[in-house]
Amino acid sequence: MWLKVFCRNINRRKSLDENLLTTELRRCLGILDLTLLGISGMLGAGIYVLTGAVAKNTSGPAVPISYLLAAFAAFLSALCYAEFGARIPTTGSSYIFTYVTMGELWGFLMGWNMILEHGVGSASVAKAWSGYLDSVMGYPMKTYFQHHVTMGDGVILASYPDFLALGIIVLLCVLVACGVNSSNKFNITFALINVAVVGFIIITGFFLADIHNWTSVNGGFAPFGFAGIVAGASRCFYAYAGFDVVASSCEEARNPRRDIPIALGVSLIIVTIAYFGISSMLTLMVPWDEIVPKSAFPDAYGRHEGWKWAQIIVTIGALCTMTTAMFSGLFVLPRILYAISKDGLLCPLLSSIHERNQVPVYSVMFSGALSGLMALLFDLETLVQFMSIGTLTAYSFVAACVIILRYSSHGQMSGGYTTLDDSPSTDTEQGKIQSITAPSESEKPSIKEENNVSAVSHNDSKNNGLDSSGAQPATKPKQSETSRLVYQKTIHNGDDSTKQELPARSKSDNNSTTSSENTQPSGKNKAGMLKSKFCGTFLDLHFGRYKPGKVVVFALLVSVCSSLSGMLLLSYTWEKFIIGSWWVVLLFVIFTLITIASLLLIAAHQQHEDDASQEKNFRVPLVPFLPYLCICTNLFFMIKLQYLTWIRLIIWVSVGLVIYFVYGYHFSQRNPNRFQPHWFENVCSKLQHCWIKCRSTESNDLKQLSKNDELDENTNSES
C-alpha cells in the first residue's frame, strides 16, 4: 500500500488556477521585447566561433545547408514551446510543462536539468567572451595566468582561473537584479547592435565574395559529402539553443497567448536568415580550408586590403552578441529557480520577490554564483558538451508533453488555458479529488442563488458532523444543457472518505457523472479514447477497455524505445547496413515497423478540442507526427555526444534526486501533509529584521550627518 501511495505522490500533477495571468512579476514585455530576447538567446557565440569551426572541420562551404537543417530541427521544438507558452503562461518553461503533464518527479528533474542548461550555457558564453577578447588583444591574460596561477590540465578544469569571465557574469547579474524594465532596455540596445553588425557582414561580404571558393577549392561545395552536412547540422543545432528564453518569460508578457507564438516564430526566422547569410559570406570570402575558426571573421577581413577597419566592427559585434547571450541565460535561470521554489521543491528563499524591482533577487544571486564558479574553474569544451545534453533533454520532454497533453483525459480547457487535475482513479486515504471548471460569464449565479446554496451547504455540513467553516464554499450555476458544475466536498474521517454533492443534481447530471466515473467521456471530452470510427474494430477490442490516455502513453514509450534502438543499431553497424547485412536490415525494419504502428495507434485516439466560445490557442499541427519527429531529431543528436557527457548528466541527475527526496518530496505544495519549514522562516525573518535594522541605523546616521552639515553651514554663514 505504501508503495502505491509513494508512486502516486511522485507522479502528482500541478493544478493550474483559472486566472493564470495573475502573477507577482511585472507584465511589461510585448512582442518586440520577446522577439529581441529570443534573438539574443540564439545569436550567441555560435555565430562568430561555431560557424568557422563547422566550415573548417565538418561541412566545408555547405555549412549554410547545415544551418538550414538545424533550423528545421529547432523549428519543431519551437512549435511545441509555442503551444505550451500560449496555454500555460507561467514562468518555468519546460519545468512547468512537464510538471503539469507528467508529474512532480519528472517536472523537478526537468527543472533541475534546466538549471544545468542555462547555468552552464551562461558560463560557456562567458568563457568564449573572455577568450575572444583575450585573443584580439594578443593573449595577455592567458600568458600571465598560465605563468603565475596554474590550476588544471585543460581537460576538465581550465588551465588557469578565468577572472574576466567571472567579472562579466557578476556585472550582468547586477543588471538583471535591477528589474525587468532596465534589463529589457539593455537587451534591446545590444540586440539591435547585433543585428546591425550581422547585416554589415552580409552586405560587405558581397563585395569581397569569390564564387570560386564554392566550386573549385578542394572538393567544391560539399567536400565532406552529405554525411558532413548532417554532422555539421548536429553541431549547428546548438546555435539555436536559447529560443526557450521566450517561453520562460511568458509570465512577464502582456498577452502571452498571442505574443509567445509570434515572438518564437519571428525570432527563429530572423536568426535562421542571419546564420545562413553570415555562413555563406564567410565561405565566399575565404577558402574553407584556410579559415581560422577562433577568429574567422576578423581574419577574413584582414586578408583583403583596405578592410582592416572592419575588424573593429566585427569584434564589437561579437562581444555584444556574446554579452546578450549571457544576459538571456542569466535572465531565465532565476525565473526557473523562482518557479521551482514557489512549488515548494527548493529553498523558499529563492522565490522571494523584491518589492520595488519585482525580481527574485536571491535566485539572481544564486544564478550568478553558479555560472560564475563554472566559468572560473571549468574548461570551455567541457561546458559546451555539458550544456548540449541538457538542452536536448528539455526539448525532447516538451515534445513528449505535447503528445501526452493532447490525448490526456486530465486536460480540460478553462478560459482558453489548460488546467490539469491529478485526480486518482481509485479511493485513497486522501479521498477523491475532482476538478472544478469555472462557469462562463452567462452562467454565473446571482447573489440570491449563492445565499441559497450557502444555506444548503451549511445544513449538509451539520448533518455530517461538520460546521460551516469546515465545508468548502459552493456556488450554484444556472442549469443548462451545455455547461453544468458538480460541486463536491471531501470528508476525512479516519480511513473512510465520503462524498457530498451540492446542489442536488438532475437525472442528466447523474448520468454524466456515472459515465465520467466509468472513464467514458462524452461530448467534446473524448480525449484519450479511440475515435468513434474505430468502435467495434480490432483496436476497440484490445485497447478500448483502458482508461483514457493510458494507451497513448504506452505507445509513445514503445515508439521512443524502438526509434532509439534503431538509431543505436545504425550508429554502430552503419557499414554493415550499407553492404546489406541481412540481420542488420531485419532488425532495422522491425524497429521501424514498431515505431510506425505505435504512432498510428496514437493517431487513432481522440484529441482535445478547444471550446468554440473561447479564443483559439496556438496548436502544433500534425500531432503526434511533428512532435515525435522532434523527439527523434533530438535523440539523434544526443547519441552523437561523448560518453563522458552522459556520465556527467547521470551524476547531476543523481544529485537532483537526492535533493528531491530529502527536501522537495516533503515540502511540495502538492503534498497535503507537507512539512512546514518553520526553522527556515525564522532564520529568514531574523535576517530580514537585521537588514531593516541596519538600513534604519544607516538612514539615521545619514540624517544626523546632514543635520551636522547644516549646523556647520549656518555657523560658517553667521561667522
Give a structural overview.
- Strand 1 and strand 2 form a beta hairpin.
- The longest helix has 41 residues, at 678-718.
- 42% of the residues are buried.
- 62% of the residues lie in helices and 3% in strands.
- Helix 2 packs parallel to helix 13 (256-285), helix 17 (380-406) packs antiparallel against helix 24 and helix 17 (380-406) packs across helix 25 (643-667).
- The chain contains 26 helices and four strands.
- The strands form two sheets. The protein has a two-stranded antiparallel sheet. Strands 3-4 form a two-stranded antiparallel ribbon.
- It starts with a helix and ends with a helix.
- The chain is globular.
- The protein has helices at residues 2-10, 31-42, 50-57, 63-87, 94-101, 104-136, 140-148, 163-177, 180-208, 212-215, 225-236, 244-248, 256-285, 296-302, 309-342, 361-377, 380-406, 447-463, 507-517, 538-543, 550-572, 574-579, 582-603, 625-638, 643-667, 678-718; strands at residues 411-414, 417-420, 487-493, 496-502.
- With 719 residues, it is mainly alpha-helical.
- Mean pLDDT is 76; it is low at 411-525.
